[in-house]
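User:
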Amino acid sequence: MAKLLKKQTQMSPLAEEYSATAFRRTEEAKATTRHILDVAYGPEDDQDIDIYLPDDANTTNVPVFMFVHGGSWTHG
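Assistant: Predicted structure:
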């Protein structure tokens, strides 16, 4: 059975600012790092991740940072 969620009509100003900052920072990262985009981790559409790597050739034993968006993003 499908569950309907309340429609979000407008994001708060803080959410708008966060969305714009995240988009800008993503574009900056793409321009300044090695990256592999849209790596599938599952069979469904949108089950993919983007991987950003250090510029130097030594990529062993580097820290990993993961950001997982756990909500419903209907705007932005």
